Amino acid sequence: MVNALGKIGIWQGAPALNPGLAREVEQLGYGAIWVGGSPDGELKIVEDLLDATERIVVATGIVNMWSDDAATVGASWRRISAKHPGRFLLGVGIGHPEATKVYQKPYDKIVEYLDGLDEAGVPVSARVLAALGPKVLKLSGERAAGAHPYLTTPEHTRQAREILGPDALLVPEHKVVFDTDPERARAIGRPKVNNPYLHLTNYVSNLKRLGWSDADIADGGSDALIDALVLHGTAAEIAAGITAHLDAGADQVCIQVLGEDPLPGYRAVAEVLLS
């Protein structure tokens, strides 16, 4: 069983994470640090962050199933969880077809990998699945503690909660830019959305299920799409967008602050939502 995550976490690529940042976000009141960028199966970054902190949960967002086998990842989970019980949530996912030449029958691969985690001793309650579409969302509620959707909107969160039911964990990621000028904010957010996500089948398919058109997705994304996927404005305006996920059924929202230094953004959100 993993400790309570709290309502707000952070999502940060592994290269930008370090013990000092982890200690500060813990002190600010965040409930979890989601390690992005497909960390390797040894998961030393997770162990280092847990070693540097006292209570915050560290989660992976996500370990790619094609990169590291379930036995290796399971051994890492056992090692880290023995040292820091209740503080490590293992997020795993299939990635996307454009990323690997061996990608085939993704649903079968997910089921096979979860079987491997069972054999490796990783309990259902200590793992979540990267999930966007209905089939994998349903599996997330059956074979994992829940789902960790990436690049979504509150409408997706509402639909995901209906599929998962009331008890499964649901933790979407959402990008934010602290700038009240829409053009400047989009100039930061659009490249992060367009490359690579608007060129990847699973993300594009998900956006279309949510009602976004080919025109919205083309040419780097329409202003409306970018604004929906990358919150911008004042801390209060951004907090309202994050809260919309919670109102739609999310248990926690993990925010990804875009820009050279994310810490001022994390501090600003904490002042509004965590104080």
From TrEMBL:
Transmembrane segments: none annotated. It comes from the Bacteria. One of its GO terms (cellular component) is cytosol. InterPro entries: Bact_Lucif_Oxidored, Lucif-like_OxRdatse_MSMEG_4141, Luciferase-like_sf. GO terms for molecular function: oxidoreductase activity, acting on paired donors, with incorporation or reduction of molecular oxygen. This is LLM class F420-dependent oxidoreductase. It comes from Amycolatopsis acidicola.
